[in-house]
């Protein structure tokens, strides 16, 4: 696996939980954003996130499925069983109206967080003093 | 186990298993379509997927409304 890829690979239950918790906020946003393009099953979602990030992000199953099931419990996605193009039964997830509101909110807060972190990282005055 | 569960095995667990098995099957088929031999495709898809039982376990934990959310974005949302 590419060392630069941000993977959520796990090998124990404790590690699974930690990764889920750490990634939960941004993963929710990425899933909801990906579902804006239309309903998708879990495998297609993981591939979409990987491709859209030019292979930088690989969402592993141990993070993806807990997130999808939690988002459904929260009412931000809905799901239904349908056939794929290759005629296999799969569970397709769709973003709900409440999910769209949540996505807009998460995206706005994400931008604020990035700007705040960027302001610290770009702080030339503190660099000069050190 | 109560009588209801004895009569009707947990359908939700079966559906989760079907969902995850489907993910794995698609990952294998994708690799075969890209030219990998079946054995190799199966092995690499299994490796990438991780431990099926653990994935099922952590996913089932999310069904409970009490599942704790330790989420950096959650902290911001509640402000």
List its traits.
heterodimer, A: 130 residues, alpha+beta, Arc Repressor Mutant, subunit A, three-stranded antiparallel beta sheet, two-stranded parallel ribbon, 5 helices, B: 79 residues, mainly alpha, 71% helix
Distance between the amino and carboxyl termini of chain B: 42 Å
Sheet of most strands of chain A: 3 strands, antiparallel
Percent of residues in helices of chain A: 55-70%
What number is the mean pLDDT of chain A? 83
**Per CATH, what is the topology of chain A?**
Arc Repressor Mutant, subunit A
Tally of discrete structural domains of chain B: 1
Total number of beta strands of chain B: 0
The helix-strand sequence of chain A is EHEHEHEEHH
Beta-strand percentage range of chain A: 15-25%
Structural class of chain B: mainly alpha
**Fraction of helical residues of chain B:** over 70%
CATH top-level class of chain A: Mainly Alpha
Count the domains of chain A. 1
Under CATH, the homologous superfamily of chain A reads: Winged helix-like DNA-binding domain superfamily/Winged helix DNA-binding domain
Low-confidence residue ranges of chain B = 68-72
Spans of at least 5 consecutive residues with low confidence of chain A: 1-5, 18-22
Topology:
The complex is a heterodimer of chains A (130) and B (79).
Chain A (H helix, E strand, L loop, with lengths): L5 E2 L5 H23 L4 E2 H11 L4 E2 L2 H13 L3 E7 L5 E7 L1 H25 L2 H6 L1
Parallel strand pairs in A: 1-3
Antiparallel strand pairs in A: 2-5, 4-5
Helix pairs in contact in A: 1-3, 1-4
Chain B lengths: L2 H5 L3 H23 L4 H12 L2 H10 L10 H6 L2
Q: How is this structure best described in words?
A:
The complex is a heterodimer of chains A (130) and B (79). Chain A has 130 residues and is α+β, with helices and mostly antiparallel strands. Chain A is built from 5 helices and 5 strands. Chain A has a single domain, classed as Arc Repressor Mutant, subunit A (Orthogonal Bundle), CATH 1.10.10. Helices cover 60% and strands 15% of the residues of chain A. In chain A, the strands form 2 sheets. A 3-stranded antiparallel beta sheet of chain A has the order 2-5-4. Chain A has a two-stranded parallel sheet with strand order 1-3. In chain A, α1 crosses α3 and α1 crosses α4. Chain A starts with 5 loop residues before the first strand and ends with a helix. The N and C termini of chain B lie far apart (42 Å). Classes of the chains: A alpha+beta (130), B mainly alpha (79). At the A-B interface, α1, α2, α3, β5 and α4 of A face α2, α4 and α5 of B.
């Amino acid at each position: 696996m590419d060392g630069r890829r941000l993977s959520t690979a796990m090998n124990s239950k404790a590690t699974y939980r930690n990764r889920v918790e750490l990634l939960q906020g941004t993963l929710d946003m990425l899933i909801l954003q990906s579902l804006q393009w239309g309903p998708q099953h879990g495998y297609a979602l993981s591939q979409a996130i990987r491709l859209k990030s030019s292979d930088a992000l690989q969402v592993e199953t141990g993070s993806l499925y807990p997130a999808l099931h939690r988002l459904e419990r929260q009412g931000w996605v809905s799901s239904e069983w349908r056939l794929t193009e290759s005629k296999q039964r799969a569970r397709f997830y769709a973003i709900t109206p409440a999910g769209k509101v949540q996505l807009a909110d998460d995206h706005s807060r994400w931008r604020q967080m990035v700007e705040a972190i960027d302001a610290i990282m770009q702080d030339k005055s503190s660099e000069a003093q050190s | 186990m109560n009588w209801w569960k004895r009569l009707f095995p947990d359908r939700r667990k079966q559906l989760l298993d079907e969902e995850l098995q489907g993910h794995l099957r698609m990952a294998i088929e994708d690799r075969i379509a890209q030219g990998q031999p079946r054995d190799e495709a199966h092995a690499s898809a299994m490796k990438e997927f991780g431990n099926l039982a653990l994935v099922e376990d952590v996913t089932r934990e999310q069904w409970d409304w009490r599942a704790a959310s330790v989420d950096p974005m959650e902290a911001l949302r509640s402000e």
